[in-house]
Design a protein that fits this description.
heterodimer, A: about 475 residues, alpha+beta, Arc Repressor Mutant, subunit A, three-stranded antiparallel sheet, 15 helices, about 40% helix, elongated, B: about 475 residues, Amidase signature (AS) enzymes, 11 strands, globular
């Protein structure tokens, strides 16, 4: 058998930090980047005698996410303790949901190989994050930062429905976009606000019997996710082809060495001794909460993409890019309300605007260009009041200062002269000064035309409407 | 009668009239501690400065005509399980030696707001695991009625301190009888309220689904008054009941006429002390004479209660005690090499044998492959035990029984026999499993002068009626007036 005879089977477990202001069981801030142990209190430090009090926002976000994933929202769910010792786990257990999670049986649509695919979601549950251990090899000590301890997490577990590393990465991207759309996660993989483990196995093609799976950890970018799964599939195929058996184990992805390696075997697996958390009663949802979240559910990325194609007549490529982030899509629609050439608008967005945003990273919410101003600028270009080139310059200035396009055009003297008589006088002057060149043109040397355009533009300091210049020159040269 | 012998309410009325100041009462406590605590060993920490400062503030309020509450100025003690800001809080364990609480638990805050000076922190079995206070990580406490005997446990320090006149009242906690049993062994009134009635925030957890805070006092009325201070809904405790508390003193003298009291036949067992059984049956007879209808009742799953308790409580404890790992506070085996050894040595040195035994029991009961057979099964039996009570309370208004099968036993008598020690709670722990209110009050003495306790159990949140039954019995006797021969 060769590698192509095997079918990979992949499931992902994604941990998403929820964008609440305070932690899940205390009122400490969830702000990222504070000095170590700054956002802590007796509760998240796990001092003796403390008790958890559930943050209602966490439940709302879990329900919103569950609804967006088409899950069954459980009206009664149960908190459990997951017991293990680790220095950054202050209580010696993590409060999580185990056998009765808040959301079950959903699905996420992705662009898989061969079209749209529905990846089943097994469960979505809430839990608290642990702190962070920092190792100082110079002093030979380890330090613990508990700012992150108690930050709310949503764990989203897929069924093993993914069939290739590319699909796994696409699932991750789609899930990220969805969570960011819902406003429950900031989508930042680098800062660890979205983390992913993968369960990977292979089986002979056509088999109904799943192979033994391994769990991959430390997949903190799309590229690593895809790469780690590729490596693991290749490793498993090699093991099987050489007559071996895949061991059920947890493996760590090492990006530097480009390999996965065993972290702990099934025998070494923790016994987490789950049991219902006695400090928190079962979570019973009132219908009001679920209804409010259903109402708050925004248009989801795929629906928006479809609408951008039909309503604005955009190509799929444009629609996908424009709808990848909800603020960008909203901003596009705001500008489109005042400017009807949607394809041209899309070109300006995907060309100029994204370039500006890349040069100086700015959240859309903090963008200084008012949607009305953006639309007015494009209309000016269309009317020939300024050139497209000048339009880009104006947009850049609007991006910096938020000024109205007319102000920038006036201040910089970028207004384009379209007045026939003014241009005609100059055309005549240029032709009169260069009789020999005019002769060459009339004799068939068409390249000279560019020379005349250049002379006229120069005389008008670039502000002449090039279309008008072209027309007049052609008429006068009579070629 | 000397000042330190007064009940809380007697002292409160003298404070109100200005006959006595809180500073005088507090000094009386401190003198008494100096006199007798060398023998009784109830205190782990005396906060002379803090208590006197609180007493002065109380006297100023009383002078200004603005007392913080009816008990303003009455000095009390706290079991060392309560987080008390700025004071050492060890829970009777070496693993928390030197730990100073950085915050006040809810009941401590309520006591302070009500103006009660806190004289100090009282000894207990380590992490409240025990029935004799011999499992304290520091030293055993002695029974003021016989210094060779135990005051019971785990709130043995609280009981001994109140009985010996070192404080006017105290708070303890009761997971399987840890307020009621020591109250019975020291001639006190001890009340375990309904689970959820009093906040557990700032109370070091032993078994979270069973732990409850309550008063140990010299009279039923004192217990009612102290309960009044602490029985409040607390948003910091998600298991705290969102129910208003009634005025516990208002109906206290209502008597038992017209009430039906049940004597559960399962609570009179082979091997119990004959003197105890006689005293309790006499008390039942007396209540009948006072107008109660006393009937036989049955709680058929009682015999499973002990086994059920010793699966659930250790399971929760094994998890609750995981935080004592030497990383953030308390004892740390600084000489350990590596993380595993740090955990192992810290916990090996910090925990005593009874705590280790229960951590192992609980860890085992929760392990993969055993969870269903032990923990889950125990939870099901717990439901059956709760239903027993629900059935019984359809016929009766309260249940009466012995609190402890025996009077105070000798120190050292049961320390090497954990099962014999566990049996001390056989009548008290079903009440915790069912989450009900239960009280022990004095109902006599053995021939050798050891106190005997009568237990009254009530419906959920029916503390008022439990107190009323107790008071009806109490006012017919002078047990509560008796003081130990110290």
């Amino acid at each position: 058998m060769s590698a192509s005879d095997f079918q990979p089977v992949i499931g992902l477990e994604v941990h998403a930090q929820l964008l609440t202001r305070s932690k899940i069981f205390c009122s400490c801030s969830t702000e990222f980047g504070a000095p170590p142990n700054h956002h802590t209190c007796p509760v998240c430090l796990g001092l003796p005698g403390v008790l958890p009090v559930l943050n209602r926002r966490v439940v709302e976000m879990a329900v919103l996410t569950g609804l967006a994933l088409g899950c069954e929202i459980q009206r009664r769910s149960v908190w459990s303790r997951k017991n293990y010792f680790y220095p950054d786990l202050p209580k010696g257990y993590q409060i999580t949901q185990y056998d009765q999670p808040i959301c079950e049986q959903g699905r996420l649509l992705i662009d898989g190989e061969g079209g749209e695919r529905a990846i089943r979601i097994r469960r979505v549950h809430m839990e608290e994050d642990a702190g962070k251990s920092v190792h100082d090899p110079v002093r030979g000590i380890s330090l613990v930062d508990l700012n992150r301890a108690g930050v709310p997490l949503l764990e989203i577990v897929s069924e093993p429905d993914l069939r290739s590393p590319e699909e796994a990465a696409e699932y991750m991207r789609s899930l990220r976009d969805l969570l960011v759309y819902l406003g429950v996660n900031d989508g930042n993989l680098e800062e660890g606000s979205l983390r992913c483990d993968a369960n990977v196995s292979v089986m002979p093609k056509g088999s109904a019997q799943l192979g033994t799976r391994t769990e991959l950890k430390n997949l903190n970018s799309y590229r690593f996710l895809q790469k780690a799964i590729e490596l693991e599939i290749a490793r498993q195929v090699l093991v099987l082809e050489s007559g071996g058996k895949v061991e059920q184990e947890t493996r760590l992805f090492d990006a530097e060495r480009g390999e996965t390696r065993s972290m702990r075997s099934k025998e070494e697996a923790h016994d987490y001794r789950y049991f219902p958390e006695p400090d928190l009663p079962p979570l019973v949802l009132d219908e009001g909460l679920v209804e409010a979240q259903a109402k708050a559910l925004p248009e989801l990325p795929r629906a928006k993409l479809e609408r951008f194609r039909t309503q604005y007549g955009l190509p799929a490529y444009d629609a996908k890019l424009l709808t990848s982030e909800r603020p960008l899509a909203d901003y596009f629609e705001a500008v489109a309300a005042g400017y009807r050439d949607y394809k041209k608008l899309s070109n300006w967005f995907l060309g100029e605007l994204l370039r500006l945003l890349k040069e100086q990273p700015t959240p859309i919410a903090a963008l200084k260009i008012g949607p009305g101003h953006f639309a007015a600028l494009l209309s000016s270009v269309d009317r020939g009041e300024i050139s497209a080139g000048a339009g880009k310059e104006v947009l850049a200035e609007m991006f910096r200062t938020g000024a109205a396009p007319q102000t920038v055009i006036a201040e910089r003297g970028l207004a384009q002269v379209s007045d026939q008589s003014a241009i005609e006088a100059l055309v005549d002057e240029v032709l009169a000064k260069n009789p020999s060149e005019a002769e060459k043109y009339r004799a068939g040397k068409r390249q000279v035309f560019g020379f005349f355009v250049g002379q006229v533009m120069k005389a008008m300091k670039g502000k002449a409407n090039p279309q008008v210049v072209n027309e007049l020159l052609r008429k006068k040269l009579g070629g | 009668m000397q000042l330190f012998e007064l009940s809380m309410l007697e002292l409160a009325s003298k404070l109100a009239s200005g006959e006595v100041s809180s500073v005088e009462a507090t000094r009386a406590c401190l003198r008494r501690v100096a006199e007798v605590d060398g023998k009784v060993k109830a205190f782990l920490h005396v906060d002379e400065k803090g208590a006197l400062a609180a007493a002065e503030a109380s006297d100023a309020r009383r002078k200004g005509g603005k007392p913080a509450g009816p008990l303003d100025g009455v000095p009390v003690g706290l079991k060392d399980i309560f987080l008390t800001e700025g004071l050492p809080t060890t829970c009777g364990s070496r693993i928390l030696e030197g730990f100073v609480a950085p915050y006040d638990g809810t009941v401590v805050r309520l006591l302070k707001e009500a103006g009660l000076p806190i004289v100090g922190k009282l000894n207990q079995d380590e992490f409240a695991m025990g029935s004799s206070t011999e499992a304290s990580g520091f030293f055993p406490t002695r029974n003021p009625y016989d210094l060779s005997r135990t005051p019971g446990g785990s709130s043995g320090g609280s009981a001994a301190a109140v009985a010996a006149g070192e404080v006017f009242g105290a708070l303890g906690t009761d997971t399987g009888g840890s307020i009621r049993q020591p109250a019975a062994l020291t001639n006190l009134v001890g009340l375990k309220p309904t689970y959820g009635r009093v906040s557990r925030y700032g109370v070091i957890a032993f078994a979270s689904s069973l732990d409850q805070v309550g008063p140990l006092c010299r009279t039923v009325a004192d217990a009612a008054a102290l309960l009044q201070v602490i029985a409040r809904h607390d948003p910091l405790d998600s298991t705290s009941a969102q129910l208003p508390s009634p005025d516990y003193l208002a109906g206290l003298e209502g008597g038992v006429a017209g009430l039906t009291l049940g004597l559960p036949r399962e609570y009179f067992v082979e091997g119990m002390d004959q003197e105890v059984e006689r005293a309790v049956r006499a008390a039942a007879e007396e209540l009948r004479r006072l107008g109660a209808k006393v009937v036989d009742t049955s709680l058929p799953h009682t015999r499973y209660a002990l086994a059920t308790y010793y699966l659930i409580a250790p399971a929760e404890a094994s998890s609750n005690l995981a935080r004592y790992d030497g990383i953030r506070y308390g004892l740390r085996a600084a000489d350990a090499k590596g993380l595993r050894e740090l955990y192992a040595l810290t916990r090996e040195r910090g925990f005593g044998p009874e705590v280790k035994r229960r951590i192992m029991l609980g860890t085992y009961a929760l392990s993969a492959g055993y969870y269903e057979a032990y923990y889950l099964k125990a939870q099901k039996v717990r439901t059956l035990i709760r239903r027993d009570f629900e059935q019984a309370f359809k016929q009766v208004d309260a249940i009466i029984s012995p609190t402890s099968p025996v009077a105070a036993f000798k120190l050292g008598e049961k320390v090497d026999d954990p099962l014999a020690m566990y049996l001390m709670d056989v009548f008290t722990l079903p009440c915790n499993l069912a989450g009900l209110p239960g009280m022990s009050l004095p109902c006599g003495f053995t021939a050798s002068g050891l106190p005997i306790g009568l237990q009254v159990l009530g419906r959920p949140y029916d503390e008022a009626r439990v107190l009323r039954v107790g008071r009806a019995f109490e006012r017919e006797h002078d047990f509560a007036k008796r003081r130990p021969p110290l």
